[in-house]
C-alpha cells in the first residue's frame, strides 16, 4: 500500500468515524481478491464513502457502467487506490479544502 493510500484510509476513518482497523480490513479484503464485488461496494457505501460516484469520476464512467464493471469483476485494487486518493486529496470530498 502506498503512502497516499495509507494516509487516505486514515482520513476516511477520521471523517466517517469508522474504525481504521475495520476500514483496513475492508481494504485488505479487496487486496486479496484484487477486485471489488457488490459486497465491497455496499460496505464502503454504508460507512459513508461514495465509492461508486468516485470510481465513476476516476474512470470517467456512469453509475450504471461502474455497477456493470463490478458485476464483471473489472474494478480492481488500483481503481480503489485511485478513488481513495481522489477522495482525500486537496479539494477532494474528504481532503483539505482549498
Give a description of the structure:
The protein has 98 residues and is an all-alpha fold. The chain contains six helices and no strands. The longest helix is centred in the first third of the chain and has 14 residues, at 3-16. It starts with a helix and ends in a 10-residue tail after the last helix. The mean pLDDT is 94.
Describe the secondary-structure layout.
Layout: H1 3-16, H2 20-33, H3 38-46, H4 51-59, H5 63-71, H6 77-88
Helix pairs in contact: 1-6, 4-5, 4-6
Largest sheet: none
Number of helices: 6
Give the overall pLDDT as a whole number. Answer: 94
User: Span from first to last CA?
Assistant: 26 Å
Order of H and E elements: HHHHHH
The geometry reads as globular
Low-confidence regions: none
Number of strands: 0
The percent range for helix content is 55-70%
In what range is the share of β-strand residues? Answer: under 5%
What is the structural class? Answer: mainly alpha
What radius of gyration results from the CA coordinates? 12 Å
